[in-house]
């Protein structure tokens, strides 16, 4: 929530955006949208962790080959 305030969005703006989303998509579609967003965030984190582990693995291989 603090990151939204950093971007200049206060409490009122967040409420207005939430109401607009509710009006545009309706109450039945919002849970589906949130599930999709959650899946996307999870896939992004998995990809980020995979890249990080590959980089660390490569760094460890370099260290062992130098000895």
Please write out the topology.
Blueprint: H1 2-6, H2 11-66
Question: Could you please describe the fold and organization of this structure?
Answer:
This protein is mainly α. The chain has two helices and no strands. The chain is elongated, with a radius of gyration of 20 Å.
Order of helices and strands: HH
What would the principal axes of the Cα set say about the shape? elongated
Give the uncertain stretches in residue-range form. Answer: none
Structural class: mainly alpha
The helicity comes to over 70%
Calculate Rg over CA atoms.
Answer: 20 Å
Largest sheet: none
Cα separation of the termini: 48 Å
Task: Kindly summarize this structure in a few lines.
The protein has helices at residues 2-6, 11-66.
List keywords for this structure.
67 residues; mainly alpha; elongated
């Amino acid at each position: 929530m603090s990151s939204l305030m950093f971007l200049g969005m206060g409490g009122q703006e967040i409420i207005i955006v939430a109401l607009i989303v509710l009006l545009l998509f309706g109450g039945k579609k919002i849970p589906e949208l949130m599930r999709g967003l959650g899946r996307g965030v999870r896939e992004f984190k998995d990809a980020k962790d995979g890249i990080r582990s590959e980089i660390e693995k490569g760094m460890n291989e370099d260290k062992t080959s130098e000895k």
